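Lecture notes, structural biology module. Today: joint structure prediction for complexes of two components.
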Amino acid sequence: MATILFYILSAVAIVATGFCITRRNPVHAVIYLVQGFFALAILFYLLGAPLVAAWEVIIYAGAIMVLFLFVIMMLELAPDDPLPGPGWQRWAPVALLALALLVCSVLLLAVESGKSGIPPYYASPRTFGYALFKEYALAVEVVSFQLLFAAVGAYYVGRNERGRDPGGTP
Amino acid sequence: MIVPVLHVVAVAAILFFMGLACILARRSLIMILIGAEIMLNAAGLVLVAASAYWQRIDGQLFVLFLMAMTSAEVSISLALVVYLRRRQGTVVADDFRKMSG
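The predicted structure, tokenised, for the full assembly:
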């Protein structure tokens, strides 16, 4: 059952991401990407990481994508204009890469098929917390510093210069 | 769940490639950032699959660090997008051809 669910959700994630990268309107793209992230969150759950699935929904779909939506709506971005040149010129390197990826994947799957599946690894929150705050305590500190710097940097870059210097030279 | 680890990696590779295609083919800075998000999520899928494959928790921990890193990156880069829009009046990557100080 879970195996069938895995393939269905993989297809959902891939199709939603495919819609996302081809939409001209950025709001539609973000909505499709949120759909793909939900499918990916259930994939994480099936692989035995319910905590990661919750973060995927809360942080990615809930915070980061909504931040994208805020910026898109704040800047009042119009849908992309079509390029003046032919479309195939832009997508040609992508098509080449897709062909290479397809060939590699098919070769690999043909060689390695028949392997047994991986059982999910269910980690209790207790195990998770011990590993996070004992083995990786330094990394947690570094990441918290990084978030602080990002907040300060975003404030610095995004501050309103006109408010600071009213009537000044541009 | 009985899924070969190679199938999970194949799904992640397809997602990663889609993010790369988004970065290569789109012109809007917002869509380029969305492509980076897709690629980072594909990396997270590989990490969780590796965590299940070796029956260790480190992969899931790295996804947490990945998410923290991503939120920092997105906040900074979206602030830069707002800044560029305010300065130059556009978010199309092709329009930023010259770097005048």
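Point to remember: Chain B touches chain A through 67 residues (CB under 8 Å).
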